[in-house]
Design brief:
single chain, about 325 residues, alpha/beta, 8-stranded parallel beta sheet, 8 strands
Length: about 325
């Protein structure tokens, strides 16, 4: 008697990996922080939240409270704020709690906070300073009502693969700091940085043996680092709270692309029609957060126009790729 051939989705289910997209139960199976239960993704009709990394409007030099207002008015589900912008607000007399209220009143999710420190440094003094900086920034994030903070690899000049377990131990040290604050640091892949390979960042994350270890990935950075999108099949998408979305042109070689070359999703050569369904199949149902640093956009558009176009471009890419 012949056996029925299983689809990839059925095989994933059989191996114990929950798949997103099953209505409310699918949403609840995703990794989540406290605020995510307040704002689902259109009751299962939209597979991902659409969010804004405020890097996208950084060139306008707006105060953080205005960034939040504009993000909400443009219709985004969530926002990523920069620690430096919040620190400037606090220095001017504001409080994290007031920003927390503003975010909640707008119905936004604070997806993640952007910060930079030397937590992974080979120099013990710089490493200790980096861990302390992460602790302070996680405490600030908690006061804002957030649950995640970016942890890019700064303070090392190159990756030595025979020392991956050492890097895992350093990542675990900030994860344990996060246990005390209720905020999880997510190790970030940079295509042009020292930690540019998905295999390395996955090995470091797995090597921590910490249940909250996670990765912050990005379409541009994966491409810029020479990674295959097919490698994402090896990642449990449920463990990724957020994924940075952007595109890249074919007019510039991969090896010479810079952060400022990132463009609107759908305006370049990123194969969203393949990668977004792949992410969904692996269980990802978090926030797609647009991250751009495009000076041309800042010079030629108002901030309102840039945000409107960002929302439209992401929505169109999701619709055309996911048939929603």
């Amino acid at each position: 008697m012949s056996k029925k051939k299983l689809t990839r989705r059925e095989m994933l289910r059989a191996s114990g990996i929950a798949i997103a997209g099953g209505g409310l139960s699918g949403l609840l199976s995703c990794v989540s922080h406290d605020q995510q239960s307040l704002k689902s993704v259109d009751k299962g009709t939209k597979p991902f939240r659409i969010s804004l990394n405020t890097s996208t409007i950084r060139g306008y030099k707006l105060p953080v409270e205005q960034q939040i207002d504009l993000c909400a008015k443009a219709g985004f589900d969530g926002i990523e704020l920069w620690v430096s912008d919040v620190e400037a607000y606090v220095k001017a007399g504001g409080t994290p709690e007031s920003l927390n209220r503003q975010i909640k009143e707008h119905g936004l999710i604070l997806e993640n906070m952007i910060t930079f420190s030397t937590w992974i440094s080979d120099d013990s003094v710089r490493q200790a300073e980096g861990v302390q900086k992460m602790r302070q920034d996680m405490e600030l994030t908690a006061r804002l009502g957030g649950a995640y903070i970016a942890a890019p690899a700064q303070g090392i000049s190159h990756i030595e693969r025979e020392r991956l377990q050492e890097y895992s131990e350093r990542y675990r040290s900030i994860l344990e700091e996060g246990d005390h604050t209720g905020v999880t640091p997510i190790i970030e892949l940079w295509g042009g940085g020292v930690l540019n390979q998905l295999s390395d960042i996955a090995a470091i994350s797995i090597g921590t043996a910490h249940p909250k270890a996670s990765m912050l990935l990005d379409f541009y950075h994966l491409y810029r680092g020479g990674n295959s999108f097919n490698s994402l099949w090896q990642i449990n998408g449920k463990s990724l709270p957020i994924f940075h979305i952007n595109d890249y042109p074919d007019s510039i070689s991969r090896e010479t692309l810079k952060d400022a070359d990132r463009i609107f999703p759908g305006d370049g050569i990123c194969p969203f029609d393949k990668v977004l369904p792949l992410l969904h199949e692996t269980g990802f149902c978090g926030g797609l957060s647009i991250e751009l640093f495009n000076q041309t956009y800042w010079d030629t558009m108002s901030v309102q126009t840039l945000l409107k176009k960002s929302m439209e471009k992401i929505t169109n890419v999701i619709k055309s790729s996911m048939s929603v």
